[in-house]
Structures are given as C-alpha cells and as structure tokens.
Amino acid sequence: MELVDTHCHIQSVEADSGEGQTLKTWQKATNLSLKAVLKNAHSAGIKRMICVGCNLADSQQAVNFALAHPSCWAAVGIHPHEARHYLNLAKPKLDEFKKLLSQPKTVAIGECGLDYYYQHSLPADQAQVLRFQIELAKEHNLPLIFHVRAAYDDFWPIFDQFSGLSGVLHSFTDSAANMQQALKRGLYIGVNGIATFTKDQAQLNVYKTIPIDKLVLETDAPFLTPTPYRGNINEPKNVGVIAKFLADLRCQSLEEIAAETTKNARRLFGF
C-alpha cells in the first residue's frame, strides 16, 4: 500500500534555521532524528512527501532537502502570515524566488493564500503577495497549495481573476458550500489530522462527501497530530492514521483510500 503526504515541513528537522514556529516545534522532539522521521515514513508506506515552504529561506531549505532525499519533493511559497515582509519584492529577491521554481523537484507553489484568523499581515498585503504567487504559478505551469482561513469571501474573487489554475485547499476545515466552490473550480481538498479530532459534525460531513477523485492526504507535520497520538510531534508516518480514519468514516476500504489519494497526488503534482 502506497501513500503520499502532500504537505509537511520536515525540511526543518535537525535544522538550525527555518520558519520560526516550525523550527521551534521540531526542536521539542529531542528524541526524534531526521533519520527516524524518514525511516518511520517509509515503514508506514509513505512513498512521497512534499516539503512545503512558508517564506523564501524556508522554501530554499525545502528545495535543498528534496534534492538530497529521493522520497521528497518541494513546494516553494510565501505564507500569508509572511506577506508583510515580501511586498513589492526587490529584483534580487524576486530572482532568487524564481530560481527555486526551475529546480527539478519543485512541484508546486505554496503555501500561499489568505488568513484572516490570525492577521499577522494586513489583508491587502496578503492579497498582493497571493496574486504574485498565482502569476508565477501560471507562468511556470505549476499547481498551487492554498492556505485559506476565515477569508473565502475575499479568496474566491482573487482566484477567479485568473484562468487555468490548479491546486489544493490545504488543511480544509470550512463549509460544504466552500467545498463545492472549490470543486466547481477543479481544486483538490487536503485533509489532515484535524479530521480525526474535530467535534464539528458539519466538518465530518464535509470529509464524508469529498469526491474521492478530489481528495488528497497530508499531515502538516510537525503540527496537527491525529488522534490517538495527540500530544506528540506529528510525522509523515501518520498519513496512514488519517487514511484509516477516513476509510472508516466514509465506509470505504483503506486500500481504496490509499490508491485513490495517491493517484490524485500524482495527477496534481506530476510525480
């Protein structure tokens, strides 16, 4: 059985630099080595992992990590929390970011989007940086990994200014109505450990009804550890836990969930 973790941040394991919150979280896992993280993933049938960048340095780290590890690929992006630092990118920074897009194991742009739940950057600044990344995705024919939280009313009008986009709504926890808006636009839906511990029946109903050909799995490791491992640092190996939960929730076999979500990930990211 083969599984894909379409969204993790393992490029920061054992690193001395990187996106701040991610780095701090991995540093709490004092008994967990990079070798162990990769071995645990491979033993659990996780054959491919996408290491997702949140700013320029983190994206560079993700690309370098993917080039050094055969089972890993990279997405390069500027998280909406980081938008204020990347307004009107100076040419040297812009060129540096663009170089990452031509690396052989860069398969997506993201994570990018809008987050109004924590407004670490102003909405207008987030929108500007999101548009910049969408334009690059079109230019380089890459899918996008979208982070959208409490901001869909502004997100859809921006998305609809562009044509021919492909991508995934990462860590989807929103309404059935916004799931339908996503499906109408051809987007995939990313599900992670939140599904295993949410008490919101409406969310569970959404997870039940995502069309199987639009479902992809992710961990967001080191965050959002699924039940029954809450309290531990999350790892890509836990994709299997999420897959089993969804199989039971949706009355499907684990083998079907694994096969279909793996096929979807390959189709979306082209590996």
Helices and strands in order, then pairings?
Elements: E1 3-8, H1 20-28, H2 34-43, E2 46-52, H3 56-68, E3 72-76, H4 91-101, E4 106-115, H5 123-140, E5 144-149, H6 152-159, E6 167-169, H7 176-184, E7 188-191, H8 194-197, H9 201-209, E8 215-217, H10 239-250, H11 254-269
Parallel strand pairs: 1-2, 2-3, 3-4, 4-5, 5-6, 6-7, 7-8
Helix pairs in contact: 3-4, 10-11
Approximate strand percentage: 15-25%
Helicity range: 40-55%
Mean pLDDT comes to 95
Could you tell me the CATH topology label.
TIM Barrel
Unreliable stretches: none
Determine Rg (CA atoms, Å): 17 Å
What is the CA-CA span between the terminal residues?
Answer: 17 Å
Largest sheet: 8 strands, parallel
Instruction: Give the H and E element order.
Output: EHHEHEHEHEHEHEHHEHH
DSSP, total strands: 8
Briefly note the structural class of the backbone.
alpha/beta
Q: Superfamily at the CATH H level?
A: Metal-dependent hydrolases
Our count of domains comes out at: 1
Shape, principal axes of CA atoms: globular
Strand order of the largest sheet: 1-2-3-4-5-6-7-8
Total helical elements: 11
CATH structural architecture: Alpha-Beta Barrel
CATH class: Alpha Beta
